[in-house]
Design the sequence.
């Protein structure tokens, strides 16, 4: 079975854990407490790896699978951290018809990760995004604050090389 | 109770207030199909196969019969063209992502989906074919496979795991078309704190989950002339096996089962009931010793390997409370490979011990540490009741026409105390019969307070000058409730019987599957348990210590209950596990 455990080493600090435990203690008794706890946890850690979900499970008594089920149900939660460089490929209509889907696929293949995930070295994370208002440059992707437009699949290697 | 009047397909019937449309139709003699719904287990109204037309004065509309409550003067149409059309569409949509390998599916013939497709005349299963999800089969657990390609997402397994058993190691992951049933972080079930109870298999309407099948290995052992192949059958198997051959629920097939096993080629056909009697000798003795010597109380039974694993994962601080006795299956295997092997002059390495169990956790139990009294595993293969049913069918044996035969001596000799092990309360009753006799010399054979299918039963018995407080629990959510009380000091039991499966082994995860259409209206636990209590009543010996074969095994081999040798062969140890 393919385990969805994040391959990026967990770097949680005792301060983050103390913050999370305080949130859990505050909300634990409430009905439907899991959603707000998860939202706060993602605020604290940036994502929800097994280590964080296990803390929530241990402290609330909610089975780990139930938590994981909720996390994978909602798009707002992520199992993976953001990389040093966050690549966002626009899959909005204009970019898509200009072939951004192929660029997105090529990036997944090159980085060895699926959309939403982060490479094991923590360097790159990949996301699809909707229109970023640069349709004139379609197809478009961004790496952190840098914008790249009028791309073809062949440009992918050059762009990645810049950040390697 | 107040009654309502409803019309089912034009026929007026009176139904208790609070009845669902499904129940009203049943009272009127009409069965409405259900796939996600199973009474008391999963009541979510999600699959839409039970869609039925009702009119509450504002015209007919479609509702989910399984959860929709009746109102007075409601008109119900259970098979109008609109209803049939809706159900057909639902089936076709389910089939569009279903791996339709019916020819080789373990559930072919008793699959609830297959039956509905036949009933509703689904001629073209591929009408909505399109994108599908492909899943790897999860074989990481000791006892079962999960093949999500056949899963219809009814969530009965999820409900029974989290609600009935209070465990929740499986659930729905992802959403929409990508939804699948699995464990956290896509761990294999074997990596989780699954206790192997198999209740998920018992409720699955299709072939998405099934026990690991070892029938081939057993047949190979039987065919090997160098091996002596012994078989033992658990008490509850005789109360369930008949269902594999179309016999009514609650038919005692002990004699036919023994005959069938002989015809399958087992060298000796023995009875786990002997192991149960042996367990009582050791367990009653252990209980008396704990009370006398200030040992850890409450003592909790250790016959149910699903319960034992649950305790190790979820109540690791209470493993000291578990009786150190091996389960009857393991005591039997250990005795067969030591005492019986020695008596017959067989090398224990040449004995293949097969057990037939109503249980899937027994498959896990045979691989546990400290279960190898003769240096080889006490039990080599643990088959479920269903696997035995399949073996008999494959061998072409006409089960229903078999004569009633007896078990072989000496390990086939047992008492009424042994046979009731298969029902919740049975171990407690059997243990008390012997403990009372040991302490007071009195003979007590009926303790009705601990019988019945209630999930939690309590009683207090005066034994000599001591008040013995006992509890009998089945279903692991109930076990959690009782253990939390004990931990908080809110309960002061001396002795607790816990069985993982609701109703005890008769409703074990390895018993023949009964469809929702039956389980929604028949208490299979009570029907099967009745077989065992009737057997107990009919037996000349009803207390374990009266069993002549038990007396012999102590005289010739163990000495007395709790002896050094008994401890070496019949007792075991536990480990602390984590929750995943």
Sequence:
């Amino acid at each position: 079975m393919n385990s969805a455990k994040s391959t990026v080493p967990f770097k949680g600090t005792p301060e983050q854990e103390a913050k999370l435990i305080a949130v859990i203690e505050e909300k634990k008794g409430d009905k439907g407490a899991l959603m707000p706890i998860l939202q706060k946890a993602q605020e604290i850690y940036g994502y929800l790896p097994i280590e964080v979900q296990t803390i929530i499970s241990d402290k609330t008594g909610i089975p780990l699978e139930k938590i994981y089920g909720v996390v994978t149900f909602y798009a707002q939660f992520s199992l993976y951290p953001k990389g040093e460089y966050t690549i966002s490929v626009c899959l909005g209509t204009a970019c898509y018809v200009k072939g951004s889907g192929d660029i997105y696929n090529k990036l997944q293949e090159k980085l060895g990760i699926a959309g939403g995930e982060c490479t094991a070295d923590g360097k790159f994370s990949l996301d699809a995004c909707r229109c970023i208002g640069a349709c004139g440059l379609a197809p478009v992707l961004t790496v952190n604050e840098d914008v790249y437009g009028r791309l073809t699949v062949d440009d992918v290697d050059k762009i990645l090389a810049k950040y390697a | 109770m107040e009654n309502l009047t409803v019309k089912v397909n034009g026929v007026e019937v009176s139904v208790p207030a609070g009845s669902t449309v499904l129940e009203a139709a049943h009272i009127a003699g009409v069965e409405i199909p259900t796939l996600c719904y199973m009474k008391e287990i999963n009541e979510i109204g999600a699959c839409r196969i039970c869609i039925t037309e009702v009119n509450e004065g504002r015209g007919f509309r479609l509702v989910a019969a399984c959860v929709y409550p009746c109102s007075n003067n409601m008109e119900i149409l259970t098979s109008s063209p609109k209803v049939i059309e809706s159900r057909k569409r639902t089936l076709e949509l389910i089939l569009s992502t279903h791996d339709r390998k019916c020819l080789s599916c373990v559930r072919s013939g008793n699959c609830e989906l297959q039956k509905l497709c036949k009933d509703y005349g689904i001629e073209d299963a591929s009408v909505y074919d399109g994108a599908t999800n492909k899943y790897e089969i999860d074989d990481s657990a000791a006892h079962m496979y999960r093949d999500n390609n056949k899963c219809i997402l009814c969530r009965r397994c999820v409900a029974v795991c989290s609600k009935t058993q209070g465990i929740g190691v499986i659930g729905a992951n992802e959403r929409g078309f990508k939804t699948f049933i699995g464990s956290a972080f896509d761990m294999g079930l074997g990596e989780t704190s699954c206790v192997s109870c198999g209740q998920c298999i018992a409720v699955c309407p299709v072939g998405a989950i099934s026990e690991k099948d070892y029938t081939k290995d057993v047949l190979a052992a039987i065919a090997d002339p160098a091996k002596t192949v012994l078989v033992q059958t658990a008490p509850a198997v005789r109360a369930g096996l008949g269902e594999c051959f179309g016999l009514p629920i609650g038919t005692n097939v002990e004699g036919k089962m023994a005959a069938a096993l002989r015809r399958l080629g087992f060298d000796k056909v023995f009875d786990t009931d002997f192991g149960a009697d042996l367990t009582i000798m050791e367990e009653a003795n252990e209980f008396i010793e704990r009370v006398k010597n200030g040992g850890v109380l409450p003592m909790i039974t250790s016959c149910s390997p699903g319960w034992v694993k649950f305790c190790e994962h979820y109540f690791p601080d209470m493993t000291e409370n578990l009786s150190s006795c091996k389960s009857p299956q393991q005591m039997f295997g250990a005795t067969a490979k030591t005492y019986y092997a020695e008596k017959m002059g067989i090398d224990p390495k040449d004995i293949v011990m097969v057990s037939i169990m109503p249980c899937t956790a027994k498959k896990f139990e045979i691989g546990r540490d400290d279960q190898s009294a003769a240096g080889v595993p006490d039990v080599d293969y643990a088959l479920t009741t269903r696997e035995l049913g399949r073996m008999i069918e494959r061998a072409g044996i006409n089960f229903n026409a078999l004569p009633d035969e007896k078990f072989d001596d000496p390990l086939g000799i047992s008492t009424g105390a042994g046979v009731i092990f298969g029902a919740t309360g049975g171990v407690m009753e059997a243990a008390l019969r012997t403990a009372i006799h040991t302490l007071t010399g009195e003979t007590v054979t009926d303790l009705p307070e601990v019988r019945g299918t209630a999930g939690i039963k309590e009683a207090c018995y005066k034994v000599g000058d001591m008040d013995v407080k006992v509890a009998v629990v089945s279903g692991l959510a109930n076990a959690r409730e009782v253990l939390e009380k004990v931990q908080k000091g809110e309960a002061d039991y001396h002795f607790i019987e816990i069985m993982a499966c609701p109703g005890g082994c008769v409703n074990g995860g390895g018993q023949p599957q009964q469809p929702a259409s039956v389980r929604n209206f028949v208490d299979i636990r009570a029907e099967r348990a009745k077989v065992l209590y009737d057997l107990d009543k009919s037996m000349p010996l009803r207390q374990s210590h009266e069993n002549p074969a038990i007396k012999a095994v102590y005289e010739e081999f163990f000495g007395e209950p709790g002896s050094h040798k008994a401890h070496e062969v019949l007792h075991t140890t536990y480990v602390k596990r984590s929750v995943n």
Chain B touches chain A at residues 136, 138, 140, 162, 167-175, 182-188, 192, 579-580 (CB under 8 Å). DSSP finds 19 helices and 17 strands in chain B.
